[in-house]
Specification:
Blueprint: H1 2-21, E1 47-53, H2 60-68, E2 75-80, H3 87-92, E3 98-103, H4 113-122, E4 129-133, E5 137-139, H5 143-154, E6 158-164, H6 170-186, H7 189-192, E7 206-210, H8 212-217, H9 229-239, E8 244-254, H10 261-269, H11 272-275, H12 280-300, H13 305-328, H14 339-358, E9 363-365, E10 368-370
Parallel strand pairs: 1-2, 1-4, 2-3, 6-8
Antiparallel strand pairs: 4-7, 5-8, 6-7, 9-10
């Protein structure tokens, strides 16, 4: 028993050492884009912002107000996706924008709500650039000109920024930095930003792309059933020979609050099993991998002797590689020592996602159930 534990502890340490030396270094924060100041009077007539909005009355005015501060002549289309609140009315009250609010048509079979809303709006976009923006995303002044400059200067056709999630409550502080951390392990930014077509990633809250791309790929209909629509869109665009780029930003801020653990749980469980392609084998392999990588090191500390020493090395590397993410978001490094508990919660959310799927619910979000 002790010998087996020692071997597993050594395996965990080797895994973490391998992650340290991976060429694409998913734990680092090299891909970052922040808003540049002094762009408040920029001409943005070549950009149309498309915002799908379903029951977003609490945040839509803040989102649109931030867009009004980006520059002049910006076009904005808000698609009211069958909201039961005052989303459309609140949006129409915002001044300083060339704003159009359109009502979404009934959701056809086989479409997700967000993609259907985007499909209806993007078909009429006439500007060279389109920004796909979630209704709960606030952009700091200068972000739109900065995104446009990034595309032009580097010859990129599709740029996405992962929003800074709210980290006020205890559960948000515990779990939200790890959400970004795990996403970067699943989709290493360095690989996604390279010409290697095997990895493509995007964060759906903020995507700027050349409008022509949507016509080239056949519109959102080609990914209409995708629940992880952002990465599916990036993969389709990149697969067609275009360059994509994804990075972090503190200038793109999510207004969405997750005060209760159950809210974060549902957010993750919505697509976690989808990430594993609805495969029981991948689910079991993922669980075993998480056990060795995250849970075995603290357990090995209790064994004493050489096992404890190797486990301490693995635990230390685990915490050390999480620290850059915490530092980026201004969180205390002490949160890194909670990573085994954090990983256990995320794994439990993944199992919840699988159980819901086995019960006939592929995804559940904002009052819609996708079977």
């Amino acid at each position: 028993m002790t010998e087996g534990l020692s071997m597993l502890a050594a395996l965990a340490a080797l895994f973490w050492l391998a992650i340290v030396v991976l060429p694409w270094q998913p734990w680092r924060n090299r891909e970052v884009l922040e808003a540049e100041a002094g762009e408040g009077d920029a001409d943005l007539s070549d950009i149309t912002v498309v915002i799908p909005a379903r029951n977003e009355a609490e945040v839509i005015a803040t989102t649109l107000g931030a867009l009004a501060a980006q520059g002049r002549r910006l076009k904005v289309v808000v698609v009211d996706d069958a909201s039961s609140d005052d989303t459309a009315a609140v949006a129409r009250q915002v001044q300083g924008l060339d704003l159009r609010v359109m009502q979404s048509q009934p959701l056809p079979p086989g479409w997700s709500g967000k993609l259907w809303a985007l499909e209806q709006a993007c078909g009429s976009v006439a500007t060279p650039l389109t920004l796909l923006l979630d209704a709960d995303i606030r952009l700091e002044p200068g972000m739109l000109p900065t995104l446009r400059r990034k595309m032009r200067s580097e010859g990129v056709h599709f740029v996405s920024l992962m929003a800074t999630l709210r980290m006020d409550g205890v559960w948000e502080k515990l779990l939200m930095p790890a959400f970004v951390y795990f996403f970067k392990f699943l989709y290493p930014f360095a690989l996604s930003n390279s010409r290697f077509k095997g990895v493509a990633a995007a964060a759906g809250g903020c995507i700027m792309l050349e409008t022509r791309l949507l016509k080239d790929i056949g519109g959102f209909g080609v990914i209409r059933e995708a629940l992880i629509d952002d990465c599916s869109l990036a993969r389709t665009v990149k697969g067609a020979g275009n360059r994509t780029w994804i990075g972090l930003s503190r200038s793109v801020v999510s207004l969405r609050s997750y005060d209760r653990l159950s809210e974060i749980w549902d957010m993750v469980a919505r697509t976690a099993y989808t990430q594993l392609r609805y495969s029981v084998v991948l689910l079991l392999l993922c669980t075993a991998f998480m056990f060795v990588l995250f849970w075995l090191p603290p357990l090995g500390l209790l064994a004493g002797g050489a096992t404890a020493k190797v486990s301490f090395l693995a635990y230390g590397l685990m915490a050390l590689l999480y620290w850059p993410t915490l530092a980026f978001y201004g969180r205390s490094p002490w949160w890194a020592w909670a990573m085994p508990f954090i990983a256990a919660l995320y794994m439990a959310m993944t199992w919840t996602s699988a159980i819901r799927y086995w019960r006939g619910v592929r995804s559940r979000w904002k009052g819609r159930v996708y079977e």
